[in-house]
Amino acid sequence: MKKVFSVFVLTVLFMSSPAHALYTELGLSYGRKTTTFDENNSFDSESITGSISIYFLERLALELSYTDARGLREEKANSSDPQRTTTQKSQIMGADLILVFADKKSLFQPYIKGGGAQISRFQEVKIEGQDSYTIEPENATVPSYGAGLKIQMTETFGIKLSYDVWKTPIGGGMQTDDSSVRAGITWVL
Q1: pLDDT in tens, the chain (189 residues)
Q2: Calpha distance 112→97 (Å, rounded)
Q3: 175 with 151: CB under 8 angstroms?
Q4: CB 63: neighbour CB atoms within 10 A?
Q5: Model's pTM, two decimal places?
Q6: Domains in the chain and their CATH numbers?
């Protein structure tokens, strides 16, 4: 009886709503930040993200993404101290459900998203005149969420701005919010 009722409800829902075709969107975004405190202390980071989004019911999408992020920090307390160079790398594979607040022909398409991500991290520290050491926290599956705005320039090309957050573990059962602001382009296939 439950099965018959479920089939009936699904049939009514799909027959009462207009047909919506599936479509796919490819995205590519890049972020870079350079901060210099003085001649001995600086931080440089960059990230690149590729994504594929499968839209269904016009305003819902499943987005699969891969981010490769790198950071380089060079530090020296004073000119006579040894140089400390820290290299950090992160790879993030995400899967998010996106809710768009406009139809696909609108110029401005704000959206929110939520889902999860698999994070892999690596850090190497080199101190001038000493051995280097590495830290590799275990891979973690964490919740993620975000918001953004897509500006549809043509029927197939758009500009995408987003703010994404991951709940990254930092040890001892604690988590922190790691975030990223991105700008990129999208193509609807």
Answers
A1: 445 444 444 444 444 444 556 889 999 999 888 899 888 899 999 999 999 999 988 899 999 999 999 999 999 888 888 899 999 999 999 999 999 999 888 999 999 999 999 999 999 999 988 888 998 888 889 999 999 999 999 999 999 999 999 888 777 777 788 888 889 999 998
A2: 9
A3: no
A4: 20
A5: 0.80
A6: 19-32+46-71+93-121+135-188 (2.40.160.20)
Contact predicate 149/163, CB 8 Å: no
Q: What SS3 state is found at 12?
A: helix
Q: What is the C-alpha separation between 122 and 134, in angstroms, rounded?
A: 7
- Tokens representing 157 are 């090309």
For residue 100, give the nearest of 128, 137, 63, 48 by alpha carbon.
63
Q: Residue 86 contacts by C-beta under 8 Å, 6 or more apart in sequence?
A: 71, 72, 73, 75, 123, 124, 125, 126
108 vs 137: CA distance, rounded Å: 40
Spatial separation of the C-alpha atoms in residues 101 and 111, rounded to whole Å: 6
Residue 59, φ and ψ in degrees, nearest 5: -115, 5
Question: Which one-letter DSSP state was computed for residue 172?
Answer: T
What are 100's two structure tokens? 């768009």
First-residue to last-residue Cα distance in the chain: 41
- Of 4, 49, 48, 52, nearest to 24 (Cα)? 52
